[in-house]
Amino acid sequence: MATPALSVNTGQRNIARSIAAVFAGFVLGAALSLITDEILHLLKVYPPWGQPMTDYPGENALALCYRLLFTVLSGYLTAKLAPRYPVQHAVILGSIGLVVCTLGLIATLPLHLGPAWYPISLAVTALPCTWLGGVLYRRKSVA
Asked: Are 94 and 131 in contact (CB under 8 A)?
């Protein structure tokens, strides 16, 4: 009779660990992006905060490059922390990223804060990048 209770507790722990894994990946990606942004603003690579980057396609490309890398790292961390099914957890993170980036795109596009391709690229790449992070983790853990 103790087995069903143990199974319920294990299931609840796995759900909590799954949520924590996805949350950790989200926080990692956001924190790395914001810290890097701040450093590049302080180094005057980027214009001051609040100034649109519409005239700076190179800076937008730079931001996209490190965000892509950070998104892959976020997917990797999520997969590593997942109790089971690491790639699926990374895909869940990517789906959340897709929704968040799409909402950001809708909110900021009319404000003309930068070129339209930048927020579109963030939304389009969120899911493939986190998936890649999950696959990289799975390959490493199998090898």
From this structure: yes
Does pLDDT of 108 surpass 50?
yes
Torsion of CA 76, 77, 80, 85, to 10 degrees: -70
pTM score, whole prediction: 0.89
Q: What is the CA radius of gyration of the chain?
A: 18
Distance from C-alpha of 95 to C-alpha of 47, rounded to nearest angstrom? 31
Q: How far apart are CA 103 and CA 25, in angstroms?
A: 19
| Mean pLDDT for all residues in the chain | 91
